[in-house]
Amino acid sequence: MSGSDWSSKKGATSEVYARDDFDPELQTSDILAPRGAAPTISKEQPGSWIPSTPGGSTLAGEANEEKAITNLDHGWRPWKVVIGCFCLILPTYGLLSSIGLFQTEWEQNQLRGYSKSKISWIISIFGFFDCFFAAPCGILYDQFGPRILLFVGSTIYVASFVGLAFSTTYSQFMACFVVAGISAAAPTTVGFTVVSQWFKVREGLATGCVTVGSAIGGIFFSLVFQELFNRYEWRTGVLILAGIIMAFMTVGNLLVERNESQQTGAEADSDWDFSAFREMSKSPKFWLICVSMFAYEMVLFSQWGSIPSYAVSTNFGDKQFYLMMTYNL
């Protein structure tokens, strides 16, 4: 058979060898693909080939992401953040856990001419604003991170107790606790939020270590109030209290940081999406949890304020500090 006959019968084979669009960066499957098929060229360095999943993500990228998630629970930085969050919760919620001791001090000294119900408004407004302004502080946290929010909130919080030391009237006490309640929302929101960005497997343990700062703070400040109110005059005692609060806040500001590798919801999508809330609101379990938490918090907050007053009214005023300490256990 002549060469020309062989070429005419094997035209398909000769066409393969005649391709002039060969690219060394093409993968093996692309080289063998029919003419006109779209080539798949790696976006990495020229000549490299990275296996990919059907969804388009590289296996190497998934491995790195999995490694990053696994490393969330390891190392000293996550537990450093836990210590910092603990130091933020202790002088805020911990102080709130023994807030009723302020009321008995005022009833017996500075605000002797006022009724118990009117004095109780001062400490009640502190707890209300601390919880109410948590939502705005959460939005600010998502947008700006914890640094600025913590610094501003902690500074104002400490300053409110310095002002409290120089207060002598009902309106002054009320103003100081209004400012303290609003500013306390910043460190408490950061303390309960940022720790979840550093843990995946041990998130429950880490959050529990932060939350226990409220109980330990209640015990700690019950003993502190006993010493301050019995040994010092009002101004000196509260200034010492402000110094203690400032020390804890300083440690918290230095240790707490956001995990930049964990993208927040606000960074992922700037639009507010309430679809999840709409779905949850249809569930009876969701409302049952809401009612249960409301009842729990109402009992908890009311006892923080009423136990010291009840102890004084039943001639157990010298035991009120130990009663509050026991209640926080």
From TrEMBL:
MF (Gene Ontology): transmembrane transporter activity
Highest rank taxon of the organism: Eukaryota
Extent of Polar residues compositional bias: 42-56
Signal peptide stretch: none
Gene3D superfamilies: MFS general substrate transporter like domains
SUPFAM superfamilies documented for this protein: MFS general substrate transporter (SSF103473)
Membrane topology label: Multi-pass membrane protein
Disordered as annotated region, ranges: 1-57
Keywords (A to Z) from UniProt: Membrane, Transmembrane, Transmembrane helix
Protein name: Major facilitator superfamily (MFS) profile domain-containing protein
Organism expressing this protein natively: Sordaria macrospora
